[in-house]
Amino acid sequence: MTRDNTTIDRRSLLKKTAAASVATGLAAGSATASDADELGRPAERGEAERLLGTHGSDLLTLLANEGVLDAGTITELATDRAASPQAPLRGESGAAFVESGANPARLVVVTEVTDGMLTVSVEPETGESYALLDDGESVTVFNPEVGVLGEDATTQTDHCTQYTCTTGDGSCYASSTVTYDGDRVATRASCCSYYKCTDP
Fold first, then answer.
1. What is the CA angle 167-173-179, rounded to 5?
2. Does the pLDDT at position 26 exceed 80?
3. Backbone dihedral angles phi then psi of residue 38, each to the nearest 5 degrees
4. What is residue 198's predicted lDDT score, i.e. its pLDDT?
5. What is the pLDDT of residue 197?
6. How far apart (Å, rounded) are the C-alpha atoms in residues 43 and 148?
């Protein structure tokens, strides 16, 4: 799979312009709703749908073209349920803002679809959007800039935090960077099973 550098440069410029107007509002809302010891906060339906509309249209089109969503509309996603920032770890449907510090803050919407659990993310500060489809055996990445990537094409690097996972074994929440050809194409929530929280 090759990239069209001209398209990426043009898209990046457009995304930066659109992101500038939203990033300030997200940061302000996050600062008041989230303490330093929190991963993020639940997302209200209106703000989730606004951010998906601003930053996720190309991603939704890709998901529809690949048969993951029927029509590629926001209404197919579980934006009507405000969820915990740890919802992706538990496979719970809903929308939340996640701010782990290692990667840009993002809106995450988890939705159960025919082929598994779909996690759609948009980053207001960068304008990036991507989705992860977990079918129970593997995870596929969907990114409008690079297309569809299987696990064998990507590399995942965990950034462990001091936020305790809900697994009960002392492991910590991780903001995992998923890369392809040296570039970050997604961020994934996971648990650092090999790293125990020292200050949960």
1. 125
2. no
3. -115, 150
4. 59
5. 67
6. 27
- On whether the CB atoms of residues 43 and 82 are closer than 8 A, the answer is yes
Interval 3-18: pLDDT, tens: 443 333 434 433 433 3
Cβ-based neighbours of 87, under 8 Å, separated by 6 or more: 93, 94, 96, 108, 110
| Mean pLDDT to the nearest integer, 40-44 | 94
Residues contacting residue 78 through CB under 8 Å, at least 6 positions apart:
93, 94, 95, 109, 110, 111, 112
Strand partners, 99: none
CA distances, 189 to each of 25, 54, 70, 87, 95 (Å)? 24, 23, 25, 9, 14
Q: Higher confidence at residue 100 or residue 159?
A: 159
Write out pLDDT tens, residues 100-140: 777 899 999 999 999 999 999 999 999 999 999 999 999 99
Whole-angstrom Cα distance, residue 196 to residue 194? 7
